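Notebook B, p. 112. Complex prediction, attempt 2.
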Amino acid sequence: MRIVVVGGVAAGMSAASRAKRHDPSSEVVVFERTEWISYGACGLPYVLGGQVDDFAALEARTPAQMRARGIGVRLRHEVMGVDPVARTLTVRDLASGRTGQEPYDQLLLATGVSPVRPPWANMDAAGVHVLREIPDGQAIEATLQGGARRAAIIGGGYIGLEMAEALRARGLSVVLLEQLPDLAGRMLDPEARQQIRAEVERQGVDVRTGVTVEGLTARAGRVTGVQTDAGLVRADLVLVAVGVRPNVALAKMAGVRLGRSGAIHTDARQRTTVDGVWAAGDNTESVHRVSRRRVHVPLGLAANRMGRVAGINMAGGDARFPGIVGTAIFKVFDLSVARTGLSAEDTAALGLDAVQVDVSSSDHAGYYRDACPIQVRLRAERGTGRLLGAQLLGHGDAVKRVDVVATLLHGRGRVQDLAELDLAYAPPFSTVWDVLLVAAGRLTALI
Amino acid sequence: MRIVVVGGVAAGMSAASRAKRHDPSSEVVVFERTEWISYGACGLPYVLGGQVDDFAALEARTPAQMRARGIGVRLRHEVMGVDPVARTLTVRDLASGRTGQEPYDQLLLATGVSPVRPPWANMDAAGVHVLREIPDGQAIEATLQGGARRAAIIGGGYIGLEMAEALRARGLSVVLLEQLPDLAGRMLDPEARQQIRAEVERQGVDVRTGVTVEGLTARAGRVTGVQTDAGLVRADLVLVAVGVRPNVALAKMAGVRLGRSGAIHTDARQRTTVDGVWAAGDNTESVHRVSRRRVHVPLGLAANRMGRVAGINMAGGDARFPGIVGTAIFKVFDLSVARTGLSAEDTAALGLDAVQVDVSSSDHAGYYRDACPIQVRLRAERGTGRLLGAQLLGHGDAVKRVDVVATLLHGRGRVQDLAELDLAYAPPFSTVWDVLLVAAGRLTALI
């Protein structure tokens, strides 16, 4: 049994590890285009910002460690083609330039996503970056070391916001350009987006929304600015962070069905519509347990979990991906933001009759030294009380309490259940009535 | 309708507020023995330790605020007797010394607990304290202001541990005496108790366990030390923190049934066995949703919640107390500890076949600057996987994730459910696989 994995990051390495563990007699081979495997891409802004020592620290497992487990790791090998009938891959060794055929019995497509690169002028100029893989981070670091002083970030999503913080920490002036009227995309309700904007501006970032980029300017092959419909923004470092697209070229070659999102459609065992071909990770759709729709939400935990499921199944086991509930968390300067479930726009699109409350409270006992404000928006279905979602803004770890709502969403719990929970209280950790209980109590009264 | 509440702290004031809100036409009167109402007793060690400015900051609502809501608040009034047939109380005005009769239609006993005062010599000497109410805290503050330098704390439970930290922060030498072999009583498993001891000792506290106190020594009416079976411990401040007992004198007079714990037995609506008499708060048992036994766990959230339930019901509404799952959290120096559900001793006593795992991980991404170790012990029932309990040790807010387990315990969830949760991940908040997911994954494999 030869199990072949394309892509050696979160889903791919999780799959390889689990497959080998489940069936030690199988041959497991991973082809990875870069020199890095199994790294935490989410950590890239923190290396650049200085909270993490170096890029190597992001690598959870080294190729040597994986090889010691009996997993074949082929770095700098790019898979160019697939023949799902012959069950072979066309693989190019990027070091030698040689191309060869590789057979498989079970194939996992763990090819992730790639940053969108708009067809702007001078996208290839020095100082123009995307951020997805470790080499992208290294390139940004080189531009910083080269003396960059003025950054323009195009795109106000997670990556744009986290990099605004990192680049401010490195002492650059930062202009953040966003085509939409708000930052943070559609993952949060408009009021939360406005608070994010206020925090980012408070930290000295020049935020310009509703601005369309027309192209980049360059001189002698180096970027000099961003041309927008509202004028030129001078910059010697440009980060293009306008979203990601699932890498589905191989999937298309294999004749695998894609979902409406453009990502790969699988069943709960991570099987595609083509025999012997599996998919897992950021290139793959998941089922949202609250909306019961297929969605494309490329995040680290789901990618790792899909990989494990695929690995077990490819090796003859039986595992199922449980779906997601839309949980996400991020930090931008001194503001921590978390969400789970459905946003206001989601519930509207689904035609759900949602009721919501907004509660402001304190993350620790109000009288306690380190108490900070925390805000919760909680949403449930009118009539039934079924929880639909939550959004939290606060400081530090306080918004990690979103996990309580995620736990209830997983089991289709009701706001009445949330209101009754025996949550942990002591002054250094919470108010007597944790903000979630306050929100649930008020929302229960409106159901 | 005259609703009378005995005791104006957590349960009592919650009940009064809810009763008045539910039936604004009712007369609601609260008798409180001290001059303080509605205060967070859990905050007392933090006032003494300096994290909270003053005792008044602990008062969530002032008497004036409650009166403005139409609630009669009678401070320094002690209820001495009750006649449940005539529905009258004997009340002494501590200021004037006068005693009178007060009628009621519905009576709530929210009398809380009192510290146990062993029959030791010199318990009344100056410098000997308990800590339960604000006047206790003020008395300790006076001893500190009087120049106390050497503290002996008798009892290594929550209060003893929190006060060890507070008194160290105030610069005192601290000896902590405990009769049992470990600190932190029975709420945690033995391994966690040992870690607490190590942390307390690391902070310069002289911990002596397995020591029996025989009496206190005093000179000229001031305490000078604690006589133990292992010698004399010199001290000019002695805190006696050897547990609490429910205040049930009035309940006994009224003929109310007590539970096996010695606290008051009520139904889920907080009704006692005597018509027109209700009970709520630390003096009252609750149903443990995991063991389905009646337990006496005097903690702030349950007290407040029972008070609300009683208040609504006394005013003609219909509310039910949902029970507890045994969640508790506390901080001792740089160690944060949380638990929920059943301990190893609990499951053994109940004859449950429990399987457990211990997992050590990192509270944030391991490579992230502020990452600290976190340990989780997770316990479930063999065969079914029903979650039984968890115990967390870590730093700062990290152990507040105990709430996720508490949420599942509330609904009799399984460890398999926990393993599948979509918990929030970003490097500043968690590892990709949150420590709870790691523990649940390993435990699932053992079920």
